[in-house]
Amino acid sequence: MQKIATIDLGTNSIHLLISEIYQDGHARVLFDQSKVVRLGQGLKQTGQIHPDAIKRCTDTLASYKTIIQDHQCKNVYMTATCAMREASNASSVKSILENIIQTPIEIIAKEEEARLSYISVTYDVASSDRCLVTDIGGGSTEIAYGQGQRFEKGQSTSIGTVKLFEGTLWEDRPSQKNMDQTTLEIKQHLSELVVPKDIQTFYATAGTFTLLASLACKLATYTPLSIENFLLTQPHIEQLIENLRQLSLAEKKSLPGMMPERADVALPGALIALCLCDHLNTSRFIIRDRGIRFGKMMDVVGKITHLSL
User: Fold this and answer.
1) Which of 99, 185, 174 is nearest to 141 (CA)?
2) DSSP 8-state class, residue 294
3) Residues sharing a CB contact under 8 Å with residue 101, sequence separation 6 or more, in sequence order
4) Which of 25, 35, 56, 89 is such that its CA lies 20 to 30 A from the CA of 262?
């Protein structure tokens, strides 16, 4: 048995997963936490990661380092995605963060990001259906598809919740004109994604979709198991958009099921999700709280035969 930590540094959040791995292929989750640090703050306007975002990130990584040490993890693996791919000061930021966490940061390519999301969701899928997994991030949106557990191809487009929030959806109660402009921008980006016509099962994972599921269920307390395999439908998403667009930020934060730190990007995320329904030609997604941190863990240790949450 060994303990490992996997960290996913996203454009909006940092995720830490600590797992106990056994020789028989069994894995047990010991700790799983996400914190919103908004690493992509101002990136769309300046092309750089903002000093305030770096500070929030270093503070969070310092706390994660303590947690990792307390769990006596043998190895630590850290990946970074869109914000670190795009920022002109990514190299210097990478050095700062590596100095805090004392482990190398792997800035992964777009297709690798999609692949890790895919295997995180489908590792225990028993059927041989043609599957598609989508993930709406702060800086980009990914789709990945394959046959059952077998990954075939991943694609990414540079539209995400933070970019929209810092663009056309910066205000509370956006006008219909801004909503229409945002929808057009999303559709232009999604048009870059080529979708196979034979997909049978659509999955969605990570922060945006788990938030939408939590809101649809009006959860008092969120846990990954509370939305596991929840069927998020197009009518759910349409109703959430109608509600969210009429509320102030304070009102959004008080909604049942809302994760307050994500309230400002809830509407952008819902709009991308609705446009994905149209682009992927589906009216529903099966929700799983997985993502890159789980995919990296499974990649590192090989095939996991059973995962205990």
Assistant:
1) 185
2) H
3) 7, 61, 64, 65, 76, 78
4) 89
The amino acid at residue 23 is Q
Give the closest residue to 57 by CA, choosing from 80, 77, 76.
80
Query: Which residues make beta-bridge pairs with 146?
Result: 131, 151
The pLDDT tens digits for 226-273 are 999 999 999 999 999 999 999 999 999 999 999 998 999 999 999 999
Measured distance CA(159)–CA(208) in Å, rounded: 13
Amino acid at 37: V
CB 2, CB 22: distance < 8 Å: no
> Domain 2-109 classified CATH 3.40.50.300?
no
Tell me the domain boundaries of the chain: 2-109, 111-288
Tell me if 2-109 shares its fold with 111-288: yes
Q: For residue 65, give the amino acid letter.
A: K
Tell me how far apart the alpha carbons of residues 156 and 150 are, in angstroms, rounded to a whole number: 19
Task: With 0.85 as the threshold, say if the pTM is over it.
Answer: yes
Give start and end residues of each alpha helix (H) in 123-175. Answer: 161-165
Q: Quote the tokens at residue 290.
A: 């997985």
Amino acid at 49: I
Q: What is the 3-state secondary structure (H, E, C) of 222-280?
A: CCHHHHCCEEEEHHHHHHHHHHHCCCCHHHHHCCCCCCHHHHHHHHHHHHHHHHHHHHH
In terms of residues, how long is the chain? Answer: 309
Homologous superfamily (CATH) for 111-288: Exopolyphosphatase. Domain 2 (3.30.420.150)
